[in-house]
Amino acid sequence: MGAGLPAIARVLAPPISKLTAAAQSPYNRAFFPKGTPLVADKRYSCIGLYNPKSPENVGSVMRAAGCYGVASVFYTGKRYERAADFVTDTKRVHYDIPLIGIDDLKKILPLNCVPVAVELVEGARPLPEYTHPDRALYIFGPEDGSLDKEIRDWCEDVVYIPTTGCMNLAATVNVVLYDRMAKGLNTRSGPKFR
Ligand SMILES: C[S@@+](CC[C@H](N)C(=O)[O-])C[C@H]1O[C@@H](n2cnc3c(N)ncnc32)[C@H](O)[C@@H]1O
Prior knowledge:
Blueprint: H1 7-12, E1 44-49, H2 55-68, E2 72-75, E3 99-101, E4 114-118, E5 125-126, E6 135-140, H3 149-154, E7 157-160, H4 169-182
Parallel strand pairs: 1-2, 1-6, 2-3, 4-6, 4-7, 5-7
S-adenosylmethionine binds next to helix 4.
């Protein structure tokens, strides 16, 4: 019985056959001793690139992702291919952080993660005043285009950086990630998140 459970859980748990399917889960808190910390309290950020133009763009984004501890990077479109040369990712971050090609950014939103469009567009919220989500998927447009209304409408928030004219893609990614880092524990749930 309960071969996959920690030893303490095997001692405390009633016979599996007497439990409902939900209670049988090894992740049910009833199996764990009092004081076991909750695990669903981790901040993270992911990046979504909408049809990025070139390997240089993606390489520079990967470099930023490595510097700021991004969990994974997703991209759409065919213009950039995974086998492309990462000339700008001199730290070889693309081996450490998953870089995943998909057909639609809406399909990969992790549970409990907030999609945030980053675009210099009317109605967007200024980044300096923005409180970041605990778990965020930041979505950026391509070097030679912008995020269309459909994806902006799907995102929970749209933020912009109050620059004179737009920055290049990698510069924007660096600024957003730096802003998140500089605000520290001040994401939506505050210090109760790790
Ligand atoms: C180089 S910009 C795109 C070019 C731009 N749409 C144009 O009219 O030339 C690439 C992406 O960086 C982001 N971006 C650049 N500057 C920004 C800013 N000041 N605020 C928010 N996003 C910005 C957006 O996601 C944008 O789609």
